[in-house]
Records
---
Amino acid sequence: MRLILIAFQFLTIIPLPFGIRCEKEDLGRSTAFFPLTGLAIGGQLAGANWLISPWLARPLCDALLITLLALITGALHLDGLADVCDGLAARGGRERFLAVMKDSQVGAVGAVGLVLALLLKWQALAAVPPEIKWQALLFFPALARFGQVLTMTGARHARQDGLGAAFALGTGSTALFFAFATAAAAGFYLFGFKGILPLAAVCLLTCAGRLFFQRKLGGLTGDTIGCISELNEILALVVISAVPLIRQ
């Protein structure tokens, strides 16, 4: 239970009414429960959709849901996406890329990346058929957080400091197996065997992103993990909305 709460506390800004003891090795072990936390986040989105959708037009409702997702997570991974966009736009090698990502200021390319990512996520959600919208809202945050575990497991680290390294050092095959089992079970419950499609897409994008950053930077950072997670949220919604066979 303590590891679940650690995962929830890290991935959301929702305050807990009590303190939690957290050792350094607990960070990596808590990643086993990242998809479960994603389901909790998705449950809040589905609940909000149930409350506001009867009163608002679909585009406005979906925009508010994407806003709520950013608020619940404290825009943690959006910040990583912006930093990576700035790093990719910077001229220079590995050290320059890392230095730009570490800068707390968001550049022009990072701002453009944020706008495009939020626009794509909003439109992908708007394209989800109404009859499976609540399933999609539950599932896509869990898939992206499973992608975080897949990204970190066995990866090299571009920096030895920072939260990304602390989490990745403690993430192992057991955490990955439990995270995968949670995501797969959620997909099967919500979509039947068709749930394998967005899960497979997230696995492919995660492996491609991990390979790219390990070649580009010699390892991963917290920002690159967050960037891949944001791309996975978009991809999961796109697959759910675009593949006719997944519709029920």
---
Amino acid sequence: MSKDVIVLLEILENEHVYSLNKLKLKLEQYNLHLTEQQIISLIVQTLYESICYLQMNKKNNEKSMYKCFKYLNAGNNTKYLETVEIVEKLNKTIEKITKKIDNTQSNLNNIVRQNINFLLTIKDNLELTIIQIGIPVIEKNNNLDDKDRIESTLYYFIFKQQKYNYVSEIFKTFPELVNFKNHCDKYLLDDVITEYLKCLNYPSNFEELYYEKIIDLFLKNDKLKMTKGYKNLIINRLQLAKQELRQNEFSKRKNKRIRFFLNDAIEHIKQFEIIDKEQFLSNINYRYGIQDTYNSKYYDRFIKQKIINRDHNILDLTSRYTFTVDNDNTKSYDDAFSLIKNNDGNYELDIYISDLTNYIKTNSKLDELAYKKGATIYLPDYTLTMLPHSLTYTNCSLVKNTTRNVIAHRFLLSKNLDIISFDIQKAIIKINDNFSYQDVKDIFNTNDIAKIKTMSTIIDIANHIKRNNFYNMDYHYIKKLKKQYLIPNEKLLEKYQNSHTNFVDVLMILTNYFTSDIISKLNIPFIYRVNTSNVDLKLIDQIKEIKEIKEEEMSKQILECINNIYNPSYYSPYNLGHNGLDLSSYCHITVPIRNYASLLSQRLECKYLIDNKYISDKQIYEDENKIKEVVNYVNDRIFYNDEYCIEYKQKIKQIK
């Protein structure tokens, strides 16, 4: 051991010194004149060398090493730990501990076992120290880099490591983190509850008990704050989970224990005081007719069980490899994909949309409530879903390892990736994977040849469609640019900017176009998405040139050019085409979970194109009138929802 380390060990062994200043004076008696930073570095070096010289088959003096942590974990000393050298030394100490434990697994006498337990404790303490270094102080801190670092640290230890002791220490040291929101302004607690509810579908006792303890950490933290809407949201999710316990196959004892936990959590949440924000928002909720929760009495009547329709006319495609691709924060999945190559070299590309027709019956109470909302509303704090969470996130969502009813939009493509034919059928699928866009990128760094071929071919298909100018991509550029100038610094803008650069959106546009094209040619009642923009390529080039100058006074000139090009899209019972995309017809058939116009379009798609039942003139007339009513209402509702979002955000800023 080095001389300085030996001196420090002697001081720690014989003295009860826990103040850094007092330790500094003690070291000076040995002619060691060190700064506070140097003393902390010496303590870390002492830990490392002590582990190196630790003899597993002999009794060791553990007292000095435990004392080292008194200094490392002291709140005032954390600032001295935030150097690359110290973090590297701590990580090396952890590696050394791991090697020592691995090297003694074959020789486990009592002394070795004691030393292994001691080393595991030291390892835990070291990892917790690194965690504390990794989480900066976040009070009144809007630094995005720090927030990203906090988010990645929290999500790693809560959802991947799943070590309760670590998470507990994090919240003891940083209690304000219970109110942490991720980069999408979604509460951390909401994601914890989501993971817990997923566990209730599988007989995994460890994860289930682990997340119950984590939820307790949140609910018993004095720093936790809730709005009325968020409070009701959590209560309704837990109440729904309690009702769904009747459907699982767990033992009565386990069901009773889970029900007890849910009841206790619900009662605990009910005691929370509402923060002032709700007083500001209740008035605008009333004015805009916003209802943020579903009355629980509708759950028992309309969502009694998972409905899987296995009619003989429904294709069974459960054997096909099927996956979804969405943003990282997505919890509800509307669409999925599968791709196979036939013996003749042609490709079958299936685009699946969740089939809601078994759940949302026409003119039912649930249908009326969805119609009243018109669409899902995305707010900074949380999401006001059009449908109950049971349908949005579970029963109708195309979640991994579940079997679901879908509407399959089936494309047959040639070897050259040209579209040969298109068909629509009902099907049953099993979802194998839920990918994020980053996951798709990561697939190409693996050895999974089958997945690489599938992804690369689908991306090639999307790129082939774009190269053939299937639709006008400049429309999305102008639409994005207008949002940028009308809503500067909008947090959702980054997500929006990225949403039209991936292959998923190309395939969604393809599906919407081919479906609407078939229906328009058959002259069937339907809801079209129409647009009357004047996409002038010269003006677009002019905007790009002006934008490159990057002068603030040019913003008005850009906005004027945009207004000469861009008109917002809207729903119509008549096919007026979509000028923005340069398509002869267009619809929104791919988002029935989030949009009522899409939900009704799916019903019409099934009724007229799939079911093959006799339809009288009277029914057609009734559908036409229904569509006109829905179109007028949904267009207005979406406008008011947008106005509500703007006012909501303004109120939030005032409160903050």
---
Amino acid sequence: MKVKVYPGNSSPLGATWDGEGVNFALYADNATTVELCLFENLTDEAESAKIKMVERTHQVWHVYLPGIKPGQLYGYRVHGPYEPENGHRFNPNKLLIDPYAKAISGTIDWHDSLFGYEVGNEQEDLSFSETDNAPYIPKAVVADPNFDWEGDKPPKIPYHRTIIYEAHVKGFTKLHPDIPENIRGTYAALAHPVTINYLKELGITAIELLPIHHFITDRHLAENNLTNYWGYNTIGYFAPDVRYSSSGTEGQQVIEFKNMVKKLHKAGIEVILDVVYNHTGEGNHMGPTLSFRGIDNASYYRLTEEDKRFYMDYTGTGNTLNAMLPNVLRLIMDSLRYWILEMHVDGFRFDLASTLARELHEVDRLGSFFDIIHQDPVISQVKLIAEPWDIGEGGYQVGNFPAGWAEWNGKYRDCIRDYWRGADSMLAEFAERFTGSSDLYKDDNRKPTASINFITAHDGFTLHDLVSYNEKHNMANGENNNDGESHNRSWNCGAEGETEDKDIIALRQQQKRNFLTTLFLSQGVPMLVAGDELSRTQQGNNNAYCQDNEISWLNWEQTDQELLNYTRQLIQFVKKHPVFNRRRWFQGQRIKGTGVEDIAWFLPEGTEMTEENWNHDFAKSLGVFLNGRGLHWMGPKGEQIIDDDFYVIFNAHHEPLEYKLPPAKYGTNWTKLIDTSLASIAEDKTTIGAGEKLKIEARSVVLLHHPHKKPNV
């Protein structure tokens, strides 16, 4: 292949088509020479053209090739010192993936040549491999930026009205019988009317996708017929993973992803991406050389001060990206802006976000990464959600992220699980978690919506398994059941696993309803894991990261229709009542014109909780009065929004409990809306008066309703 060569520009980084040709730009500070390699076909084992990039502006190498078009396959070979002990691992025998590639043509075909050293050499990674890896590594693809968005606009759903649904692109639709088989498990399947109708009927407002940035499967998994199913092993921060494409591998995956976003937006559903900027798929010093390591190892990774051969590892994956370096910060910011501006996504959930805040060894909550995010006019305007921990010292940072961030509230998960399994936990903490975790967020002028509340997530037991198994059952992972959570933080309702005992089955169903009801009645942003509403099981596997099979996929043929109907009703009910989705904190103060507080807490005897009750009792029951006239919400035209009053009774006792309703000033005529001891939500027309007694079944939640005909302000 003969091509003309022009100097080009150092910005933007990556491969940029302008309608007449392509500008290629690569950051490689310590490199001595950079070669751009072009390939004509996916099956080519060697490049058809190799262009020496002679132009360098500061640390960026660049060239412009007229006549090159979208779909062009390419990679880089980068020359420089091979000195692992000094942090340099250049090896021009290795074709490398562009860190800014907008599309990647395929997946890795594992081979010893993918490593910069000679595999099996007694000097290990200090040795030098001279074998060409080009036949085994996927090629970057020049992408066409043109797309008809048809006037697409982001839904911009405020946090207080957001309900998040965590899902896996493939697992959600792979077994769906009503979706065409040729697109199941792809972006196109998520955009199919069957999927969108299901999500709308369920009532969620945002779908949070497990990582879709192009990732790799570790060699040891592939050799054991397993895979990196969850995708937390990124190698391309701009490229939608090709495995979820039904339309092609040479840029078509980009178009398919955009179509998915456009159709979800038309349905009023936001798209949030789970992103992994804390580490890459290249692993530790014994890992492969696929991209960053060979382009400029010392300019991308955190290396140990004692010996730059080794990597700092705050993630348990072997390496950590060095967010202290300007070029790494630029990579992350450019990636985030690309997904917002070009791919139209609505937010991000940052995996192990504490890692990004580390300036040295300690977590600095005001690290440069967060400063830049806060100041960025594009990124700061979308939903930013932190997984607020990593595995390093001081890495558990729940409640410590800056304003503008929401957090996966691990303390909420643990507390609510403890409560319903009957653990000896203080009611004070349960009350904090139920009302938005003010102890974690209020002092920083954050709102209840800073708390992303969840009972389960992709990592751990499904909701069904949480109440069905005492122990994890991860033997299929090939690690002798040593991986995953060490114990189950929930009450398993009797015999472990599947059972035909009707009483145990009924108790499990009730416990699921308890968890779901508590989740959606709590202040904060609820997150539901795809399939929990269907009673999806992973047969007790609480770490299915490597299971791309029926263990992880949603089995639509085994839908628990009863629980699905309950969940739909619950979500639709909560969406109609803003008292459960407050934008501001409860004050515990009397509301003008009502004579009562915005929130009040009661004992079974009908008397208000005292300080002693909060701090000393390991009680398992309490009542909560929610004043619908204490919202202080302003409508779009400045009007105050009024809701009805509600009374929630939680009983985690193993026996029924008689509950006396509070005095008349809190309400005189109550009707029952929800009772988790029943399989469905149906309003009980029976009126219950102030001070009357009500039987609350064992391990159940009851929600009572007191309507308002007009504002009383």
